[in-house]
Amino acid sequence: MYLLSKKKWMNVCLLILFVGKWYHVAGQQTDSIVVKSENPGSAYPEFYHIASFWDKYGENYAMHLKEDQPKMTYRGFKPSILLVAAVQAQIPVYIRPNQTITIQESRNTVVVKGLPACEMEIMQKLNKNNRLVFRNSLGNEWNSVSDFEQVGIYFENRYQEQLQRLQQLSDSCEAGKDFVFCVRKQITQGYLADLFSVVTEGKIPYEKLPESYLARIKRLRSEVISMVDEYGFLHYQDQVVFNYNQFLCRESLGKKEEFKAQWDTAQRVFKGKTREFLQFRLLKTYHSQKVKNFDVYLTQFKNVAQDKDYITYLDRLFQINNYHFSPEELNTTLTDPSGKQISWKEILVKNKGKLMYTDCWASWCGPCRAEMKYYPALTQAVIGDTESDPLTAFVFVSIDHDKAKWLAAINKHKLTNHQHYVMSRTSALGKFFKLNTVPHYSIIDRDGKVILYDAPRPSEKKIQDLLLLLQSDLAKY
């Protein structure tokens, strides 16, 4: 047996301590990313560059880089695709934990440093015309569509083209296997989102779609049932998982057993983290809709959920509904299009006795603007053409700083008949609505109390049904 001297033992112990400390620190950093900004533009007075991605709650998380905070760190990150936006452009980038990227703007383009050149080139080519992270849906053209078989073929052809393009590009350079896997996953989710958009945007019921169209959705079942894996959330992952579950129990949609059918299907069909996320999403979506035995489902979820952050989120969500604004929030100053200042308390008093559907947005926010086209149909269904005092007020709160762009967006989307205000996202009210990310939608009751903090978007049919239901209760008073 070989015995170490006292001095050698001390050296070994020091080495063990050093390695252990290094491993501990490295372990802490492996789930973090650092995003830095240099040479920022000046179109956004409050921030210059944005790096956004979808978090595990199915919400868009935005890192706002500004002059006094040009560097940000996010912990708990998993490999995912970030959408980097600057003044004139936005590009998707694939980023791994423990990476640092630097955003630079030059001549109407965005340059991201710190990532493999091969992977950056692939992302830029795949995202031509924003085809990687934005859906190819037909927008307002659904009413003119008569042959959904051709629509399905059109979506599938674009899907296959993107997959082939990814393979060709990745074969031509040394792209990481994890990169190829994640981007392929993003392309597939975009394709599924396209297919579902016929129902979610076009309002075409599943029973009116040809079997060949439904078969395209069915073929991707294996891609969806374990979609939430070791990778971070990608664009459309939240809605694809949720919509696929609805597709599987489509005969129950719109009926009393709708929630139970979706819950049971999630339990039976989906696996692991995907099942847990989906049931979290169902609880988050339906918690205000008087679901029978909702507390039983919630208790069941809390007892088995592996990710305790979901439980914390739901507890906070239930507390924030039925919420009365604080004095600081009520005293927040907003400005209307004429330049007149008004407090949030005065706006609530102005709308007392009505429901308020609040839309927090900005003229530079693409997802915000994309939702605007759904307001004509929504307002027609909820308040109609009546000139009398409607039971629901649509209140738009912008975080713009450029008044001309703000007003131009209102006029372009023909929203001048509604209430419009602008405020700072860093105000007490802005912090309450968490306006580091927009859009955000809420419903406020006749007494100025928040009854639904995270309300459905205008593009979701359930917001129409929900507002009509709440209006019917309001009409009884």
TrEMBL record:
Stated name of the protein: TlpA disulfide reductase family protein
Record has Disulfide bond as a keyword: yes
Origin superkingdom: Bacteria
Predominant place of localization: other
InterPro entries: Redoxin (IPR013740), Thioredoxin-like_sf (IPR036249), Thioredoxin_domain (IPR013766), Thioredoxin_ResA/DsbE_sf (IPR050553)
Cross-referenced Pfam families: Redoxin
Gene3D superfamilies attached to this UniProt entry: Glutaredoxin
